[in-house]
Write a structure and sequence with these properties.
The chain is an all-alpha fold. The protein has one domain (3-228): Phosphate transport system protein phou homolog 2, domain 2 (Methane Monooxygenase Hydroxylase, Chain G, domain 1, Up-down Bundle). 83% of the residues lie in helices and 0% in strands. It has 7 helices and no strands. It has helices spanning 3-36, 39-70, 74-108, 119-139, 142-172, 178-210, 219-223.
């Protein structure tokens, strides 16, 4: 590996880490604002999404430049390919965080309704998945990546439970509660999409470390690779 390639890979890694921290903070702040009906905080999350978009575009341009200049192979190539894909998924998580913040702003102007039961539990699980995916990336830890895959089904089950309950409340509740309940439905769905994106990141981390594409594979074999040996 030439010193120029090493320098560019280190810079790419640093920029990717900066983006991960910005995205995780945006998601945490958006969920806090949603629960607390914090309009000003939510507006700050929405404004911050522009900066995250700029970071995502710059990182992709830099990664493509490294590919063109150095034509890396093997592990270095896998890292760059994974970085491009993870970069895109992180930007999409930030978009969902901005949408959650917008729901917080909208809910503040509507008839107050209680957050759906277990929403905070779902939010905690999703944040934990995002954090584990980021830690797997930072530490090049395949075990942490597999933890993310393991918890995706739990979030899917909570998503179904919450949406089903919200729909029942919409049909049986007062007319003025319909709009806020619909906002909560979209918030729950947004959280579920964030969990899917965290799963994508974990899968890309496994590809980067182990050189194997695990998407669409049987989950039991991904969690226990020795079974497929």
């Amino acid at each position: 590996m030439t010193k120029h390639l090493l320098r560019d890979l280190d810079q790419l890694s640093s920029d990717l880490l900066r983006l991960t921290y910005a995205v995780e903070d945006a998601l945490t702040q958006a969920l806090n604002c949603l629960m607390a009906r914090d309009v000003e905080g939510a507006r700050a999350v929405v404004r911050g999404d522009v900066q995250i978009d700029e970071m995502e575009v710059q990182l992709e341009e830099d990664a493509l430049k490294v590919l063109a200049l150095h034509q890396p192979v093997a592990g270095d190539l896998r890292f760059i390919v994974a970085a491009i894909k993870i970069n895109n998924d992180l930007e999409r998580i930030a978009d969902h965080a901005a949408k959650l913040a917008k729901r917080a702003i909208e809910l503040a102007d509507l008839t107050p309704v209680q957050p759906p039961a277990r929403f905070e539990e779902m939010a905690d699980k999703v944040r934990a998945m995002v954090r584990a995916a980021i830690q797997a990336l930072i530490k090049r830890d395949p075990d942490k990546a597999r933890v993310v895959l393991l918890h995706d089904d739990e979030v899917d089950a909570l998503h179904l439970e919450l949406v089903t309950r919200l729909r029942k409340n919409i049909l049986s509740g007062e007319p003025e509660s319909v709009d806020p309940l619909l906002r909560w439905v979209t918030s729950v769905r947004g959280l579920e999409r964030v969990a899917d994106l965290a799963t994508n990141i974990a899968e890309d981390v496994l590809y980067m470390i182990e050189g194997e594409i695990v998407r669409h594979r049987d989950l039991d074999l991904v969690l226990d690779p020795e079974r497929s040996a």
